[in-house]
């Protein structure tokens, strides 16, 4: 089974299409970037370095290994072999899952700077949006020193963990980077007491450093015979304590256990003033609230996250896959598929699917139900899809597993398709009203008009599913080609929005072309988030595309508008 397929679609680019408006504020309000006279001197960097555990890093794009002039020690065969490996990319400070984020397109003249694996293109290797220098944080003190240094020199600052972000929020051209990758501590406490909490309310909790990736967090939880709500990719390279959690964090079991943000009990974070604080229900509870869905990269540098863990329970896996003989069959089957979603999610099913007019793959899990009960809820649905497509065109089965990890271990490892490709997403949450108002046929028609649709059952409440599609382009593409691909993404967003007007989307898997990110990512919470941002980050040190407060800045977050 390859869940990687879901992300075969995914990826992305950094800067924004809009032309930079003329600055209103004077230059001193601007962020200092590499190459400007305000950029710290080598002596400044040396004195920073003296406070750090390890030397400063000089991130480079992964493909620079193939350009000996800029990177004489680079190993190009290693880069070729690992180009599509999420692990290899996240192990490098200059590596991003989707290389378009390593690239930079100038918003004024359209020129592109990037570094491509295909050297025969004859394009010199450019640093693009990869920061030239940064701190490889090993301790909280390293993070504090880096934040104070960035504040003192008014630097454009970027925080990077895995580089998986689909809005390019962990890349920033000519910025100063804090790389959290090596903050790998993990500890389990069966009787965790949040700071300031009551001794009577202990939580069986796993505390992980900001650099921990899901494969590591799952291994640690499994060792304790505990389940933890986490992200899913087949190599487990996605980060467990960075963008995932601050954006919400969905898991295939979220219909039962909630999102990541429903399972956090405490953060530790270095704030813009360089202080290291605890944020939980008792301490800095406003910041705790903002960190649970207020968006990545906007609040400070998270140093650890403590998650509630759960008992291991059995689950039932179901898989449906096959081909449609014609578009009419696809229309019928997908209508039947969207229809029972609210019911499926109520009866504990969650997971992923991908389809278009030709193919259908569905992978769902139901937690803590007997095999017979799971069959009873899913078999009627098997019949509907089989009838729509023709029984011989669809395979469907259910299979019980002792627990989540047993299921994950059963999945065959596959090369991770989408990684290493330039892609942008367009997404929407699908409201339950679509079913209640009998608009499933219309919705199926819209979804089937895209080349490919990913349709995930990962939430509860008012959302019955989360849907996205994508556009991709070849490396080295001209700015015209990239611009056109992005316009198609913007159009996809508009079309998807029509199924649930005024609906929302999941910011961690979204587009830079949201008509109004404040509304679609944060809704009525935006005002409160703004005021918490003003309190904890009054000088807006932590800025990301489509993040809280970013509307006051240009596309590169270097200049107020
Ligand atoms: C292969 C793959 C699988 C995925 N699977 C899932 C999934 O199952 N569920 C899901 O919900 N999402 C999933 N996503 C989306 C994922 O949640 C986002 O890409 C998320 O932004 C990744 O966060 P990161 O910290 O790993 O990545 P990065 O790109 O390193 O960082 C993302 C953002 O978080 C900020 N950030 C990172 N660390 C810190 C920190 N310590 N303090 C402050 N800010 C920080 C960065 O500045 C940036 O703004 C997946 C993405 C990919 C590419
Ligand atoms: C380059 O990488 C390849 C494949 O990853 C490895 O086998 C080889 O030993 C490396 N060469 C050098 C000089 O490090
Ligand atoms: C690399 O670029 C050249 C020139 O555009 C092209 O002919 C070739 O097919 C490309 N190679 C790959 C592997 O994409
Ligand atoms: C990691 O754990 C070690 C051992 O408990 C501790 O000394 C160190 O301070 C921790 N590091 C961080 C960044 O929390
Ligand atoms: C479903 O997937 C399996 C495994 O990839 C494949 O062997 C089978 O042919 C597929 N079924 C249909 C009906 O396409
Ligand atoms: C699992 O089901 C059992 C029996 O119905 C119930 O007692 C238990 O609370 C459930 N556990 C979870 C995590 O839902
Ligand atoms: C559940 O359904 C599968 C087919 O999907 C069947 O093989 C299995 O025997 C059923 N299990 C129970 C307990 O009914
Ligand atoms: C739902 O809409 C379809 C047309 O799209 C119509 O045929 C059907 O009668 C409607 N069902 C209900 C319950 O309104």
UniProtKB/TrEMBL annotation:
Domain of life: Eukaryota
FAD-binding PCMH-type domain: residues covered: 127-312
GO molecular function, one term: FAD binding
One Pfam family per UniProt: BBE
Alphabetic keyword roster: Oxidoreductase, Signal
Residues annotated as signal peptide: 1-27
Family: Belongs to the oxygen-dependent FAD-linked oxidoreductase family.
Name listed for the protein in its UniProt record: FAD-binding domain-containing protein
């Amino acid at each position: 089974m390859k869940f990687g397929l879901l992300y075969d679609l995914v990826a992305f680019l950094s800067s924004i299409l809009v032309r930079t408006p003329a600055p209103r504020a004077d230059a001193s309000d601007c962020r200092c970037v590499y190459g400007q006279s305000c950029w710290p001197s080598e002596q400044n960097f040396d004195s920073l370095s003296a406070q750090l555990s390890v030397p400063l890093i000089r991130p480079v794009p992964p493909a620079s290994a193939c350009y000996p002039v800029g990177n004489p020690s680079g190993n190009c065969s290693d880069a070729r072999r690992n180009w599509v490996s999420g692990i290899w990319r996240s192990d490098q400070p200059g590596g991003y899952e989707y290389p378009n984020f390593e690239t930079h397109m100038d918003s004024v003249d359209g020129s592109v700077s990037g570094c491509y694996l295909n050297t025969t293109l004859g394009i010199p290797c450019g640093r693009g949006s990869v920061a030239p220098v940064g701190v490889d944080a090993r301790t909280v003190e390293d993070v504090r020193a880096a934040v104070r240094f960035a504040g003192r020199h008014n630097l454009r600052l970027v925080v990077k963990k895995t580089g998986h972000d689909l809005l390019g929020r962990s890349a920033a051209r000519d910025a100063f980077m804090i790389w959290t990758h090596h903050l790998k501590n993990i500890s389990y406490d069966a009787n965790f007491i949040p700071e300031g909490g009551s001794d009577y309310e202990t939580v069986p909790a796993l505390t992980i450093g900001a650099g921990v990736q899901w494969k590591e967090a799952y291994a640690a939880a499994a060792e304790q015979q505990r389940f933890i709500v986490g992200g899913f990719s087949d190599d487990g390279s996605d980060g467990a304590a960075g963008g995932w959690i601050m954006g919400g964090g969905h898991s295939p079991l979220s219909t039962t256990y909630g999102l990541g943000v429903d399972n956090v009990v405490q953060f530790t974070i270095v704030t813009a003033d360089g202080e290291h604080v605890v944020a939980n229900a008792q301490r800095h509870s406003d910041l705790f609230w903002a960190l649970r869905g207020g968006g990545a990269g906007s609040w400070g540098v998270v140093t650890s996250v403590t998650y509630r863990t759960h008992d291991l329970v059995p689950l039932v896996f179901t898989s449906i896959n096959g081909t449609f003989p014609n578009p009419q069959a696809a229309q019928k089957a997908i209508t039947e598929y969207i229809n029972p979603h609210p019911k499926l999610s109520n009866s504990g099913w969650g997971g992923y699917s991908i389809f278009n007019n030709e193919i259908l793959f569905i992978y769902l899990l139901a937690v803590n139900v007997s095999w017979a009960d799971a069959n009873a809820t899913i078999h009627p649905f098997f019949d509907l899809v089989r009838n729509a497509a023709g029984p011989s065109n669809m395979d469907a089965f259910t299979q019980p597993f002792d627990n989540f990890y047993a299921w994950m271990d059963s999945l065959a490892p596959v090369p991770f398709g989408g990684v290493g490709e330039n892609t942008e997403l367009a997404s929407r949450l699908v409201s339950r009203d679509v079913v209640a108002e009998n608009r499933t046929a219309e919705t199926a028609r819209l979804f089937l008009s895209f080349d490919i649709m990913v349709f995930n059952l990962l939430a509860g409440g008012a959302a019955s599913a989360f849907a996205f599609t994508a556009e991709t382009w070849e490396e080295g593409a001209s700015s015209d080609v990239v611009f056109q691909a992005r316009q198609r993404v913007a159009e996809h967003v508009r079309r998807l929005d029509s199924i649930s007007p005024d609906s929302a989307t999941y910011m961690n898997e979204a587009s830079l072309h949201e008509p109004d990110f404040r509304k679609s990512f944060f809704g009525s919470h935006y005002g409160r988030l703004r005021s918490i941002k003003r309190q904890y980050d009054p000088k807006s040190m932590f800025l990301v595309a489509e993040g809280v407060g970013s509307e006051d800045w240009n596309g590169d977050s270097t200049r107020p508008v």
